[in-house]
Amino acid sequence: MTGTTSVVDFLQAGIKAESLRQKAIANNVANLKTPGYRRIAVKFEQLLAEAMNSRGEADLDQVELELYHPNETAVKSNGNDVSLEVEVGQMVKNSLRHKTYIRLLNKVYRQIELAIDSK
Amino acid sequence: MRVDSSFGPIDVAVSGLQAQSKNLDIISSNVANARTIDGGSGEPYRRLEALFKTDSEGVGGVELDEIVADMSDFKKVLDPGSPAADEQGYVSMPNVSLPTEMINLNAATRAYQANVAVLKRYQAMIEATLELLR
């Protein structure tokens, strides 16, 4: 596992995951009043954890993002289980994750730049 | 490996938001039915109240435990002309008191806002941490 590239790969996978997650949230909010709609979520962290071996390495190509219905929240009388509060919470978490990944990515690129500049 | 245990305060604040929004549902039902003579079971509308409980031992979110009916007596209003009046001319009215509901409404709204404030503050805290990565 070579240092820099793999960090970028991990971050790339993370950013991909939460951009899909943002889409899932948008979908849920759009279907706030749709009868029978069950909210969708993205499975990523769990799959990544499963794919990681004891040395902390993972084949990121094997980690496929997965959309699923959590079916965890209470179902309303019209068969819909979207709660605006839950979606807002997810969105806040997602944007914090996004910020973290972007900052880390920025840091990695700055390190590379530094290495190039210091001849 | 445990995954997604981070961002705890956000989940807790969201549970508070959900609980208070359900509380608001119940209060609005009470207000809307403040003069409903037919509550469905042959008697006037009975005032409802939300009971909350923590959803785990120790630190955790809140959830709606159950919705209980207020068993206090119905109000009797003298209205002999009403088709719902009894032999003495009294009509049973719901045991909803609007001033109480208004105070509960205030409390629920404030509680909702407080949870929003917690969420916002936590978000600001994480963003402050992220500033260290700049």
Short overview:
The complex is a heterodimer of chains A (119) and B (134). Chain A has 119 residues and is mainly α. Helix content of chain A is 58%, strand content 5%.
List the helices and strands and how they pair.
The complex is a heterodimer of chains A (119) and B (134).
Chain A: H1 3-30, E1 41-43, H2 45-51, E2 66-68, H3 84-117
Antiparallel strand pairs in A: 1-2
Chain B: H1 8-32, E1 48-54, E2 62-69, E3 75-78, E4 90-93, H2 98-131
Antiparallel strand pairs in B: 1-2, 3-4
Could you describe the 3D structure shown?
Chain A has 119 residues and is mainly alpha-helical. Chain A has one domain. Helix content of chain A is 58%, strand content 5%. The radius of gyration of chain A is 18 Å and the shape is elongated. Chain A starts with a helix and ends with a helix. Chain A has helices spanning 3-30, 45-51, 84-117; strands at residues 41-43, 66-68. Chain B is of the alpha+beta class. Helix content of chain B is 44%, strand content 17%. Chain B contains two helices and four strands; from the N terminus they run αββββα. Chain B has a two-stranded antiparallel ribbon with strand order 1-2. Chain B is elongated and about 80 Å long. At the A-B interface, helix 2 and helix 3 of A face helix 1 and helix 2 of B.
Question: What would the keywords be for this entry?
Answer:
heterodimer, A: 119 residues, mainly alpha, 2 strands, 5% strand, elongated, B: 134 residues, alpha+beta, two-stranded antiparallel ribbon, 17% strand
